[in-house]
Amino acid sequence: MSTRPLVATEKRMPDPAGNELLVAVEACGVCRTDLHLAEGDLPPHHPRTTPGHQVVGRVVAAGSATDRFAVGDRVGAAWLRGTCGECRWCRAGRENLCPTSTYTGWDADGGFAEQLLVPAPYAYRLPEDVSATDLAPLLCAGIIGYRALRRTNLPAGGRLGVYGFGSSAHLTAQVALAQGAELFVASRGEGDRALARRLGASWVGAAADRPPVALDAAIVFAPAGDLVPVALEAVGPGGTVVLAGIHMSTIPAMTYHDHLFLERDLRSVTSNTRRDGEELLRLAGRIEIRPKVTTYGFESADRALADLAAGRISGSAVLAVER
Ligand SMILES: [Zn+2]
Ligand SMILES: [Zn+2]
Fold first, then answer.
1. Enoyl reductase (ER) domain: which residues (predicted)?
2. Helix crossing, 141-151 with 274-286: angle to 10°?
């Protein structure tokens, strides 16, 4: 981002075809995955694809094959954009693992734009009484974090460790605390640690600090492979460590005895299902999940990504499209 930042460009917007919605963007969250795509950690699927996959907007027009939403409805677009619906994973309710799944801002233009096309079956209905900038981070940071939290199998009232405290972590922490978990946060940034304390963490430490008690589960949000053995050492017998990112630096060598024995589980998270999204949005309507938002103008997408890369953002970054 420092040498080849994003550039604004004009593209012709096609009419929505089939089950597509043409959506006017109100706001779009900035995710670490956008940064991984912009910097080439994840290989591009098509050149010059517009990033952004936490989109809040309004339906402007719909293709003739869908009546799921009306013009003017507020909808969200998230990371998962398409699946085959027929493979063994799709049929088993694990569409996040569909080998031909497609992604917003990777396979098709995303929400760092004034408008985008969204397949109606993959759009979410969004409430009117929450601001677009507060809703946007729920659509990836919230959903993926929710899936990661479910995959921890955290017992009621259990101790949850969180490594890295960015956008997804600070939303997931709010869900876990609302569900009665005790929260232990290790993070590099002082601002992130202050945010963790304010949200109600019982213990806050630096990146690789050891919590004072054995954890029931931990989620590693930071894309740092060297935190994997650290988290596995911090969970007690039977504990689970979940890796929430799409990309991670190399995981160092581990020993069976120190890191996995005593039935510790190590799990990853891959994308999300639509069910994860619906559940998280329902949950967000019941318990108040409020991101700490830094808002950028639409034309400042390059600055938002640079700030994310440099660790200058505490909470979630969101692009707001003024019109
Ligand atoms: Zn499939
Ligand atoms: Zn994302």
1. 2-319
2. 100
